[in-house]
Amino acid sequence: xxxxxxxxxxxxxxxDPLRFARRVPPCAIVIFGASGDLSRRKLLPSLYRLFYExxxxxxxxxxxxxxxxxxxxxxxxKMRESxxxxxxxxxxxxxxxxxxxxxxxxxPGDMNKPESYEDIRKKLDEVEKSHQTAGNVLFYLSxxxxxxxxxxxxxxxxxxxxxxxxxxIIIEKPFGHDLASAQKLNEEIHKxxxxxxxxxxxxxxxxxxxxxxxxxxxxxxxxxxxxxRRYVDHVQITAAESIGVEGxxxxxxxxxxxxxxxxxxxxxxxxxxxxxxxxxxDAENVRDERAKLLRAVRVMKPEDVPKYSVPGQYGxxxxxxxxxxxxxxxxxxxxxxxxxxxxxxxxxxDNWRWAGVPFYIRSGKRMPKRVxxxxxxxxxxxxxxxxxxxKTGPREVRPNILVVRIQPEEGISLRFLSKxxxxxxxxxxxxxxxxxxxxxxxxxxxxxxxxLVDAMVGDPTLYTRQDMVNASWQIVQPILDVWANTKFDxxxxxAGTWGPKASDEMLARQGHVWxxx
Amino acid sequence: xxxAVISPAxxxxxxxxxxxxxxxxxxxxxxxxxPTVLRACAMTLIVATDEADEGFEAxxxxxxxxREHPSRGIVVAVSDxxxxxxxxxxxxxxxxxxxxxxxICCEQIEIKARSESWANLGPILLALTAADLPVVFxxxxxxxxxxKSTVEQQRxxxxxxxxxxxxxxxxxxxxxxxxxxxxxxxxxxxxxxxxLEWTRLTPWREPLGHIFDNxxxxxxxxxxxxxxxxxxxxxxxxxxxxxxxxxSAPYKAQxxxxxxxxxxxxxxxxxxxxxxxxxxxxxTGCECLRIWSTNGRERRFNYVDAKPETLMNEELSIIxxxxxxxxxxxxxxxxxx
Lengths: 517, 337
Prior knowledge:
The structure holds two protein chains of two kinds. By secondary structure, chain A is of the alpha/beta class. Chain A has helices spanning 37-52, 72-86, 94-101, 114-130, 148-157, 179-190, 208-218, 249-274, 283-296, 305-308, 436-439, 447-457, 466-484, 501-508, and strands spanning 27-32, 60-66, 104-108, 137-141, 167-171, 198-200, 232-240, 309-312, 314-315, 317-319, 322-324, 342-348, 358-364, 371-378, 389-390, 393-394, 401-407, 411-419, 427-435, 493-494. Chain A is 34% helix and 20% strand. In chain A, helix 9 packs parallel to helix 13. In chain B, the strands form two sheets. In chain B, strands 1, 2, 3, 4, 5, 6, 7 and 8 form an eight-stranded mixed β-sheet that branches. A six-stranded mixed β-sheet of chain B has the order 10-9-11-12-13-14, covered by helices on one side. Chain B is globular and about 70 Å long.
């Protein structure tokens, strides 16, 4: 009998997606690097919260692994401290913790040693029976990136990539440190896991507001007609942090803002803002469109890099009356480090919709405040009816801006002009705000909660695919190459300011200015 | 925070009362020098009740609901103890989400009216709905699905039905045939109707539905040819009919109703029969459900009779058509005949 003669699989007629929670299958999660910062601050608090809200299967277990010798009990106690400290917007419940703690196990081990993987296998076999995890395993690589390839190959050698249920692997950023290393890492991973089993996490894509960009653009009819070169003047994407490197000086010195933020998070955000509508809202179609957009971003020639990109590094500066050290004075940082703690880039997307529209992206540390947002600045009206003459010429009439706030207060604002009350026709900008908190009473899940559930369910929509990673490296690689061969006069901005002057000049050349978010 | 009683209740006075309320909340902000209050409204929720507590429980319930579904809540309490002219009071329901500095506040309006003036509340309510947002009408009024409702009561109800994007009723304890006919009439007029007796079935439907999610399962749902519903009452209730309807609608399986002893009112058990497998889902105690199959699998669940705010939370999450309910409703009507 040919495939065409076979009856299609029966669709469950009892499904009711409007009312039934998405079913998360039983599984065990193996976290490599379990005593690290990411596990303590994000992964375990997210898993606890999912457990608290009963959004994961009762048949669930976490196996933490790292070099630190610890018993299950010690691991549980350490994680209890972290979860109670780092849980976001939710109370800690001691009784729920007691139940959750029973799902936590620890296997000490060195990822270079084969016996570590055998110990993990034994523990997996145990929890498969004791917690009925059905043989499903989600590996989470939360280790130093230099261990990724080695760990994945070792999982293959010890046959941990196959079992009674499904096997998936989540890989944290950075995915490679340049295009060549990302491609090499992909090759190594594909020796052990199929692409459909690989979940490259970019937690920005799990944020509610970033997901909401798609709903906002493609669920409403009024914005999409304006979403193109005819009406949009330019786009600014800002990811500012008020903190410095916070003890991560050694890592950050090697990474820098361009690698740490723009190559991954912000290029994915740009792709979400600018992509074409998918024909169907499913993982492959959405990711196809994101990848297509990234491939359409103009790759800079070396001679264009100084014109369209600006690196920065913070020096000492006063914040709230306190003198903060410069990057080079931070612990574990070389006194002549050439690291970019700030990066601003102008991207152009060479497709029909966006030709000629600059996308300005900036990210920096020790900025005046912590804020991430996307501002779509629309073109000015064709006739300045309400422009007023001043001594220095016509007063600038502020254009419409649509701001998507990703953090801290998630929401959307639209700025437009309104007549000031009183006689005369004086106009001033006012803002129309949508705030998640006031429209949806319920607490928004954190990005890691969303993404962990997606991986357990097998929904890769919000994860980055190999071609997306390659494309995003492709667009930053020329900048990295030129910066690596240039000696910059750092520091070039003071802590507590909005970045180097050269960044303002980059926009000024196009007749634009950075917003103050 | 609330205002004094507004009597007689006139839309302008009520809206002025709301405005004053926000002004006084704003004063607090001025004193603190930073935004402390966020006004929240995603819909208008109107509750009409003729319960003896004059709307007390309804008010409590909608204040609970506001945390999940920020709304302008309007409680219309119909009582013969009310003054001859309708009276109103406006209040703000505020709460501070965990870890946030700002309070979120929703506005609530309570209107008391006699049954003879109920039908005239339409223009007041029309003026009080939040512009351009969905209006959900939750009828806790005994006349809604009763054959004994008076012409005045029907006019009062029609006024609210005409305002609503969705109407929620509760057929619990009523003759299902009559209740279904009334719901069918409204649905025939193009209204979106929900019945809390259907909502109460979600804790039963969800685990049953998930059984057939597994594509590798040997017996597909279409192979279960007989459905047996165990009910404690003399005749199947609306809830039991809905369950039978939901399960039998896709493949027109044979339905059998069986009277059984139970631990309280409402659905007691469901048995799905295929040639080589039987799945049973039943109450095994006041707070326990068990699902088990002759293939050897078994699971137990806690069961509690859901509170009104839990049921309404679920209904307020679905503004618009509910295909699963609509399909089951038509089949339940057939079964009730």
